[in-house]
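quick q for whoever's on today - can somebody do inverse folding on this one?? i tried earlier but teh output was garbage lol. tokens:
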């Protein structure tokens, strides 16, 4: 009789990598054994096979005592760092920052709503912010022509270092986007 498919070494190694990937933290062999319904020795063998299978990829299986963790391979760390710390902020013009601040505080807001505050045409700026995934269209307004409505994205939260839009600082009567300029200057320097 053939072994159960999930008990095959390749299947266990794949399951181990998948668990470590979604947990993104070190896990003990005992915890992994429980999750995979196998003994600790099977987890250790799966870890050895997984380490071999990951060779030549951008991932590395780290092992320390009875802890296992899936991490970025040092050879690919430069790319991950660039992806997690986008350069977008340093490239935004002052009009783009002003527009972004308006969208952040007034969302959802139409182009006309942004232009009423800024006093200039904002089509190109809104397109650029969308191209950088800092804002997105979230629906249509009820007014004439059903204008597009814009809101910020998760990428915006990552760039400015907030976990939620609710963490935006209170608006000041004048220069309400200065907080955004300070965040951009900090992220550009780092």
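ok took a stab at it. sequence:
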């Amino acid at each position: 009789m053939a072994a159960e498919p999930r008990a095959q070494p390749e299947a266990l190694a794949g399951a181990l990598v998948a668990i470590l990937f979604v947990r993104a933290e070190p896990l003990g062999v005992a915890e992994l054994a429980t999750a995979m319904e196998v003994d600790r020795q099977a987890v250790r063998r799966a870890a050895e096979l997984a380490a071999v299978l990951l060779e030549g990829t951008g991932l590395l299986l780290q092992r320390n005592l009875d802890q296992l963790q899936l991490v970025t391979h040092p050879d690919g760390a430069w790319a991950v760092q660039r992806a997690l710390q986008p350069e977008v902020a340093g490239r935004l013009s002052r009009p783009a920052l002003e527009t972004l601040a308006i969208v952040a505080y007034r969302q959802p807001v139409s182009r006309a709503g942004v232009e009423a505050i800024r006093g200039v045409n904002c089509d190109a700026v809104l397109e650029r912010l969308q191209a950088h995934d800092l804002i997105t269209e979230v629906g249509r307004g009820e007014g004439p022509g059903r204008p597009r409505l814009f809101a910020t994205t998760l990428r915006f939260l990552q760039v400015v270092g907030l976990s939620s839009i609710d963490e935006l600082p209170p608006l000041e009567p004048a220069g309400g986007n200065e907080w955004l300029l300070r965040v951009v200057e900090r992220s550009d320097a780092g």
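fwiw Residues 184-190 have pLDDT under 50 and may be disordered. also The chain is about 50% helix and 15% strand. so keep that in mind when u check it
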